[in-house]
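Translate structure to sequence.
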């Protein structure tokens, strides 16, 4: 089974294109909406604008975090779509139901049927093909059953590996927030002399950078972790149903 197909990832060039498009869209969103509204809020409310949503989002770290968060959501949404629209509809299919019921299974014909199927890229059919190939080589149903277990374990590992980029970004997002915290605190300390002289506006603004970047990054990270949890559950169901489908239908054909 194809690695990228099994992992349900975008092709590399498409993934890069989506990432660059997300960066551009979020940048335009900041330039056209977030920055003008945050500047207007600061001008109108002064230090009281620190709780304004646009002011909380206005800094560079928050823009990076939101860009990565949107990209991760798109990646997970694509994987979820592949499971729901492409994989789940055929989980319960008996792909060889058209073959004669009262005759021993012609393995070569069965493999050709599966490989030429419109659903040949689906993980379920790929598992059937691996099982039939093992049976063709060994003429042993028990070995074919073991091939099912091996195939679904490989499928589970590939699905998990396919989520590695998402996990990296979920790890990186809080780190970017902490970078903003360090940057903001450092800039606030540089304003200490003005604050001692009574002008605290600069220090308040820089401390806002420190705390807002951490706040936004943690909120985005929590959302992404929850969405990844839902995706992992759906992928686990997919692996389990793939195994059940093979054991229910394919082994029945082999036992004729």
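Result:
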């Amino acid at each position: 089974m194809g690695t990228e197909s099994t992992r349900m990832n975008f092709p590399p060039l498409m993934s890069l294109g989506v990432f660059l498009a997300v960066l551009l869209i979020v940048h335009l969103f900041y330039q056209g909406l977030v920055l003008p509204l945050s500047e207007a809020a600061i001008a109108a409310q002064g230090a009281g604008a620190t709780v304004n949503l646009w002011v909380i989002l206005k800094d560079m770290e928050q823009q990076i975090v939101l860009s990565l968060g949107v990209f991760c959501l798109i990646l997970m949404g694509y994987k979820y779509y592949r499971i729901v629209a492409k994989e789940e509809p055929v989980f319960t299919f008996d792909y060889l139901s058209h073959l004669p019921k009262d005759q021993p299974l012609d393995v070569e014909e069965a493999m050709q049927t599966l490989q030429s199927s419109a659903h040949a890229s689906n993980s379920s059919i790929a598992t059937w093909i691996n099982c039939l190939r093992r049976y063709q080589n060994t003429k042993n149903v028990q070995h074919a059953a073991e091939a099912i277990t091996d195939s679904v374990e490989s499928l589970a590992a590939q699905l998990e590996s396919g989520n590695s980029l998402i996990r990296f970004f979920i790890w990186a997002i809080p780190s970017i927030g902490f970078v903003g915290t360090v940057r903001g605190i450092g800039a606030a300390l540089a304003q200490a002399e003005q604050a001692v002289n009574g002008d605290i506006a600069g220090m308040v603004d820089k401390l806002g950078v420190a705390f807002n970047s951490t706040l936004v990054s943690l909120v985005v990270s929590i959302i992404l972790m929850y969405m990844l949890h839902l995706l992992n559950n759906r992928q686990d169901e997919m692996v389990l149903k793939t195994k059940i489908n093979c054991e229910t239908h394919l082994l029945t054909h082999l036992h004729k």
